[in-house]
Amino acid sequence: MTETIALGTPAVRRPRIPTRQGQGYFIRTFGCQMNEHDSERIAGLLEADGMVPVDRPERADVVILNTCTIRENADERLRGYLGALRAIKRDHTGMQIAVGGCMAQKDREGIAGGAEWVDVVFGTHNTHRVVDLLDHAAEWGPITEILDETESVEAMPSALPAHRRSPHTAWVTITIGCNNSCTFCIVPAVRGREISRRPGDILAEVRQLAESGVTEVTLLGQNVNSYGRDLELNGRRPLFADLLRRVGAVDGIRRVRYTSPHPKDFREDVAAAMAETPAVCEQLHLPLQSGSDRILAAMHRGYSAARYLEKLAMAHRTIADLTVSTDIIVGFPGETDEDFAATLDAVAEARFDGAFTFQYSPRPGTPAATMDDQVPRAVIQERFDRLVALQNYIGLQRNQRLVGRTLEVMVEGPSRKDEAVVTSRTRGGLPLHVDGKHPAGSYLDVTVTRAAPHHLLGSRLP
Ligand code: SAH
Ligand code: SF4
Ligand code: F3S
To answer: Which residues have CB under 8 Å from 438's CB, separation 6+?
Structure first.
């Protein structure tokens, strides 16, 4: 049965008393940091209602899938998982399954139509309503279609209670949505127009986090450099550079990271704030996407490869010891061997410490999906392999320069592969595995002894 409910009606907005005391919940997250942060908030909302986390869907009364739709394989992974849950639900009377996140926002009917064992489909704009929706479904049957709500500051993930993944590090939302129109990207269609959170609210959250023991925060937004365009405080727009300085000055905060800046909006004031604020880490994630000007224009990125490289050089000049990562898409429609060669050239010149490399995936509804000259899969795969090989080589060289140096790291916890080793992170964001048992959240000085393309090994000073 499909039911449409109007959110905002008294039935859904009624005040609640916790009714799910002791019930178990399990959340599976498919997407990016923002998606993970939303999951922390969903967990917080469920726990406020008395629920407790369990480690497997088989043990859960409520299973939440927080979806992503950035590339086709994200959609496919969800379908596979949903199929497995169907069998589990058959053996668990009363289990509820809710599908939220970006894919749910984009294609509610698609999810619900193919999976009648799903109880609730809720979009990113309705995350804060998850408990009400589950209750409503328990009483009235599946809610597979909900009227859209526009995004609001109250619904921002950081404005809701959270169950955080770590007591020492935290994500802090500074903007939601995206006003850009990269032709390959589905995010603006699912996350909506950009809204900035007020600096006072952000700082209040960071202070509260610091008081609770958090020492590292990562500021989140799709394009953090456009932060504040929609705000006016004392007659002027608040700037991201100022926000960085203010967050960096909060007592107890030792590390500030942020993601992602857009190259077209990345300017000297932000690089200067990074260099001059001791707590702001020497880490920059600056998505290049392509090294070909023709492709960059077709992507609507708003910069040329040369302009990107100038900004990168400016960042390296301004911020000593900067670690840089990037995103690159291989096989955007119309990409020729020459265009791809330009990407390899840009990567060789930029000498990134790391790169997230993606095979272009057409997203229905985006301009690129219907462009002529879609590149054949086999060609994309071959180019992709060459790009990965080049970046692995550069990444290894970059990491090798750190061997023998002593770096400050923050311990994340025991290594998954070896209990006698902890995984930690450098200020540049590189994973560094250290011998010995050290408590999560502690800061150590570690001498790098070996380098691999994607991580470092080290030991403590004698
Ligand atoms: N707002 C961020 C990007 C978020 S999406 C930014 O602009 O920096 C993360 C990355 O996914 C993008 O940088 C891009 O490299 C990749 N991506 C997005 N859409 C894609 C698609 N249709 N196919 C392949 N990769 C894609
Ligand atoms: Fe997508 Fe471009 Fe916005 Fe990033 S800046 S979320 S790639 S539209
Ligand atoms: Fe993130 Fe995927 Fe949505 S990358 S913003 S969860 S589409």
So the answer is: 411, 422, 424, 444
